[in-house]
């Protein structure tokens, strides 16, 4: 079983209405890009939000990586900032409680999943929770020039997200993007992944935390949901084809696959209609013959 069992959003009549679920929107700041090369968590945040936009809970803390801190030019975190911060294993119970019963969400969730697998799962975080990548979801559903979290937020709502490159600021921006996506879709969005799991164990009354100086505590919020000026795809793409850099060639390949799938489905529908018509004609003839025999 993988760390996360990732699903997708669709406008088709399958799966669970996305507005009915709860989501644990996750973001991390790290000392590098790849845990296989020694990169470690240095900050983590989770925003628990309902599909209708109500924020249920938030958690954010710096994490002591017990290693040299790289990437300061991006996240602004230095060695002195993490003095007294909890280690990864100390926050696992709280993270598990926030993820329990929710779909785990991230913008490029593959990145967050690698660090869950390398640090939190070995410390006791259960595996197999359901997941959703908003980067893949946006690429699947909307035709945008750029899909990064800040640029997509600006293109869709006209506002740049605040608190960029803080775990809590980016988690809040991702949660807002998800809620607005659900609310602005031209038709009901549904989640097609496995049902969220309820994880065992209770978090202690007090989980150790240490905030980055420019991180605000307490449950955040956002302005009332506005209307997006966005081009929703007439044919949604397969989210599995929407990862990676998604350059022109990759985008075109995903769009071609969607066109082929649409053509196949149309042919199946036509064949089913013709088969149904033939069956109705045969059944009608049989009924007429039976009625004639009864009169005779």
UniProtKB/TrEMBL annotation:
InterPro entries recorded: Ribonucl_H, RNaseH-like_sf, RNaseH_sf
First and last residue of the signal peptide: none
Transmembrane segments: 268-288
GO molecular function, one term: 3'-5' exonuclease activity
Pfam families from the UniProt entry: RNase_T
CDD domains: DEDDh
Statement: the UniProt record of this protein carries the keyword Zinc: no
Keyword set, alphabetical order: Exonuclease, Hydrolase, Membrane, Nuclease, Transmembrane, Transmembrane helix
Origin superkingdom: Bacteria
Domain Exonuclease: 22-187
Coiled coil residues, start to end: none
Name used for this protein in its record: Exonuclease family protein
């Amino acid at each position: 079983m993988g760390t996360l069992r990732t699903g997708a959003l669709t406008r088709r009549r399958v799966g669970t209405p996305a507005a009915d679920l709860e989501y644990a929107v996750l973001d991390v700041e790290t000392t590098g890009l790849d845990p296989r090369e020694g990169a470690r968590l240095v900050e983590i945040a989770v925003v628990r939000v309902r599909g209708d936009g109500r924020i249920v809970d938030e958690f954010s803390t710096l994490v002591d990586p017990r290693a040299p801190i790289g990437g300061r030019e991006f996240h602004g975190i230095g060695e002195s900032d993490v003095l007294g911060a909890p280690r990864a294993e100390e926050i696992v119970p709280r993270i598990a409680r926030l993820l329990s019963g929710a779909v785990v969400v991230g913008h490029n969730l593959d990145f967050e999943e690698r660090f869950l697998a390398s640090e939190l799962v070995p410390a006791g975080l259960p595996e197999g929770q359901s997941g959703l990548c908003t980067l893949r979801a946006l690429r699947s559903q909307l035709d945008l020039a750029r899909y990064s979290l800040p640029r997509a937020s600006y293109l869709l709502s006209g506002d740049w997200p605040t608190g960029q490159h803080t775990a809590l600021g980016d988690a809040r921006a991702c949660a807002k993007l998800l809620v607005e996506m659900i609310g602005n879709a031209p038709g009901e969005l549904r989640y097609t992944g496995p049902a969220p799991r309820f994880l065992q164990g209770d978090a202690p009354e007090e989980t150790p935390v240490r905030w980055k100086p420019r991180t605000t505590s307490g449950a955040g919020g956002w302005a009332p949901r506005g209307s997006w000026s966005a081009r929703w795809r007439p044919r949604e793409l397969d989210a599995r084809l929407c990862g990676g850099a998604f350059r022109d060639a990759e985008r075109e390949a995903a769009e071609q696959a969607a066109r082929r799938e649409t053509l196949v489905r149309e042919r199946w529908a036509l064949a089913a209609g013709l088969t149904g018509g033939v069956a109705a004609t045969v059944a009608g003839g049989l009924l007429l013959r039976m009625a004639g025999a009864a009169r005779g």
